[in-house]
Description:
The chain has two domains: 1-30; 33-186, P-loop containing nucleotide triphosphate hydrolases (Rossmann fold, 3-Layer(aba) Sandwich). The chain is built from eight helices and six strands, in the order H-E-H-E-H-E-H-H-E-H-H-E-H-E. Helix content is 42%, strand content 14%. The mean pLDDT is 90. With 203 residues, the protein is of the alpha/beta class. It has a six-stranded parallel β-sheet, sandwiched between helices.
Amino acid sequence: MTNSEEPYSKHNARMKRVQAARAKIQARRTIERGLLLVHTGKGKGKSSSAFGMAIRSLGWGMKVAIVQYVKGSWETGEKNFFEANPDLLALEVMGDGFTWDTQDRAQDIAAAKAAWERSKALIMDPDYDFVILDELNIVLRDDTLDIKDITDFLAQRPMEKHICITGRNAKPELIEIADLVTEFEEVKHPFKAGFKAQKGVEY
């Protein structure tokens, strides 16, 4: 052993043991099926993370669909990109905005019901491998849709398909049936310092 290698010998030996332990853990993970994922919490990045998984899935040749429940009238970077590249995935922009923008409860309910019907069709469509229900948690939080209808359907979903649901304030009933739940925590946000929402970062 040379002098240059000696300082790292203990580290290298330890990493070899870690590698062997990790291999044993991975060998015990044998279940393979579609996952129900929930992105929730007050922190930024819930939808952005879901869109990142969409790109990752596309990289594997999977077919992806996104239903947006709230951001209907907004111009967003993802909407511009996917409309310019329609062959990449199916983007269904079906929301009419937040409730304080619409100020019309009947309209909110009708839009949410239409989006949920489209979501169910995409989930049941065998051509799609991954379906993102962007901001579904928002309409569930406002009781615009019945959480039991949602969870009953998801419990009977095609189990080979991945589904990701985003938005703050995920209902406990949804968290209970999910396979992966991530709570996005806000540590610091530029909005509180007077910054407006930035293109490419927040929309």
